[in-house]
From TrEMBL:
<dbReference type="GO" id="GO:0042351">
    <property type="term" value="P:'de novo' GDP-L-fucose biosynthetic process"/>
</dbReference>
<dbReference type="InterPro" id="IPR006368">
    <property type="entry name" value="GDP_Man_deHydtase"/>
</dbReference>
<protein>
    <recommendedName>
        <fullName>GDP-mannose 4,6-dehydratase</fullName>
        <ecNumber>4.2.1.47</ecNumber>
    </recommendedName>
</protein>
<dbReference type="GO" id="GO:0008446">
    <property type="term" value="F:GDP-mannose 4,6-dehydratase activity"/>
</dbReference>
<comment type="similarity">
    <text>Belongs to the NAD(P)-dependent epimerase/dehydratase family. GDP-mannose 4,6-dehydratase subfamily.</text>
</comment>
<dbReference type="Pfam" id="PF16363">
    <property type="entry name" value="GDP_Man_Dehyd"/>
</dbReference>
<dbReference type="InterPro" id="IPR036291">
    <property type="entry name" value="NAD(P)-bd_dom_sf"/>
</dbReference>
<keyword id="KW-0456">Lyase</keyword>
<dbReference type="InterPro" id="IPR016040">
    <property type="entry name" value="NAD(P)-bd_dom"/>
</dbReference>
<feature type="domain" description="NAD(P)-binding">
    <location>
        <begin position="23"/>
        <end position="356"/>
    </location>
</feature>
Length: 371
């Protein structure tokens, strides 16, 4: 898919009555692709920021592609990067969005220990750049702002379940950067009256999840093991607990938050938590010929084996996947979102896991394991 800078937004901008205009940073990511789909169905004009890369990075939005020569098209892409202030200002002042969804981020927690400064720049200061661009472009009254905040802010357990009032204790450079982002959004809301909101989203997954996040890593491996392409899955801390929902449900909440008269911050979660270990067990069971996993050994020597054939080791522990500081337990309390906004998650973890395993098996069968 080609990208362009829509210098004047020509014909589309002149149409009356004007449809709403949304700008999405991170449109090529898991959430960005679901959100773009959702907004296009609502007849928004959607603008997305994509990064220049040496190979295509638009796979997740390929189905939304519209011929750039069509007058009727509703999806526009702009090259950009959250580390580039001039570029942020140019895009904001050109697109003049009614709603800006900031989903762009270096979003991998483990990688943030290796790329700490870049993560701070993108995930922390990047948000400041966008907010300042909105102010400099004179769009404070017009443009509503959504910030992709995260349950990683809760980090070291202070209270369970975690809710909007639970103190933050970030445990990674990613989470520390996101804490800056969270507070700059609150500050600009209070200081300048911006309609800016934080969605504190707990882990959400889908067949479009990046392949190095734990759920997708597991479901891809199960698919490959099932098809005889891989023998064993190597994991880090399988006793970590996460509150996993479906990305499709969660992007709706981003939109609902920006339709409110008053901006606010909301926890978005299922309210249930499970271990990585359980997710692995479920994923192996979800294959068309399910495998029951048993466990033996301790610590880094623990292995997961096929109960029907105990010599067949399918899961091993590799210390390289452990993090210098871990977030052991996340479970969110989404009561505020439920009561104030009427939002409910619809997908149970078992169904999510099964959808992901089957989607990955279909990809293996197509010979496409590039995504
Ligand atoms: P992904 O990693 O799938 O997508 C991240 C997106 O950000 C990609 O489009 C990526 O572009 C883009 N990006 C990365 N760096 C930059 C940069 N410097 N400038 C501009 N864009 C950049 O993440 P998700 O879709 O899962 O998450 C979306 C947002 O929500 C992120 O901010 C994440 O931190 C946050 N979040 C996610 C949760 C989850 O469970 N998924 C939970 C809570 C918060 P490219 O495709 O080129 O790499
Ligand atoms: P997380 O997601 O760090 O919660 O951040 P991830 O799926 O990477 O890890 C979840 C838990 O699984 C443990 N784990 C492993 N993780 C990975 N990636 N690979 C492994 O091999 C492995 N083994 C065990 C991790 O230690 C961790 O405890 C995600 C991202 O989407 C963030 O951007 C977002 O803010 C949070 O979710 C909410």
């Amino acid at each position: 898919m080609s990208a362009e800078s829509e210098g004047k937004r020509q014909k589309t901008a002149a149409k009356e009555p004007r449809t709403k205009v949304a700008l999405i940073t991170g449109i090529t990511g898991q959430d960005g692709s679901y959100l773009a789909e959702f907004l296009l169905k609502k007849d928004y004009e959607v603008h997305g920021v994509i990064r220049r890369s040496s190979s295509f990075n638009t796979g997740r939005i390929e189905d939304l592609y519209q011929d750039p020569h069509l007058d009727t098209r509703k999806l526009f892409l702009h090259y950009g990067d959250l580390t580039d202030s001039t570029n942020c200002f140019e895009i904001i002042s050109t697109v003049r969005p009614d709603e800006c969804y900031n989903l762009g981020a270096q979003s991998h927690v483990k990688v943030s220990f290796e790329m700490s400064e870049y993560t701070a720049d993108t995930d922390g200061i990047g948000v400041l750049r966008l907010l300042n661009a909105i102010r400099s472009a004179g769009l404070v009254e017009k443009c509503r702002f959504y910030q992709a905040s995260t349950s990683e802010l809760y980090g070291l357990v202070q209270e369970v379940p975690q809710r909007e009032t639970t103190p933050f204790y970030p445990r990674s450079p990613y989470a520390v950067a996101k804490q800056y982002a969270y507070w700059i959004v609150v500050n600009y809301r209070e200081a300048y009256g911006m309609h800016a909101s934080n969605g504190i989203l707990f882990n959400h997954e889908s067949p479009r999840r990046g392949p190095t996040f734990v759920t997708r890593k597991v479901t891809r491996a199960v698919a490959r093991i099932y098809k005889g392409m891989q023998d064993c899955l190597y994991m880090g801390n399988i006793d970590a607990k996460r509150d996993w929902g479906h990305a499709r449900d969660y992007v709706q909440m981003m939109w609902i938050m920006l339709q409110q008269d008053t901006p606010d911050d909301y926890v978005v979660a299922t309210g249930e938590t499970n271990t990585v270990r359980l997710f692995i067990e479920l994923a192996f069971k979800c294959a068309p010929v399910g495998i029951e996993i048993g466990w033996k050994g301790k610590g880094v020597d623990e292995v997961g084996f096929d109960k029907a054939n105990p010599d067949r080791v399918l899961v091993r522990i590799d210390p390289k996947y452990f993090r210098p500081t871990e977030v052991e337990l996340l479970i969110g309390d989404p009561s505020k979102a439920k009561h104030k906004l009427g939002w409910e998650p619809t997908t149970k973890m078992q169904d999510l896991c099964s959808e992901m395993v089957l989607a990955d098996i279909a990809l293996v069968e197509k010979g496409d394991m590039t995504s």
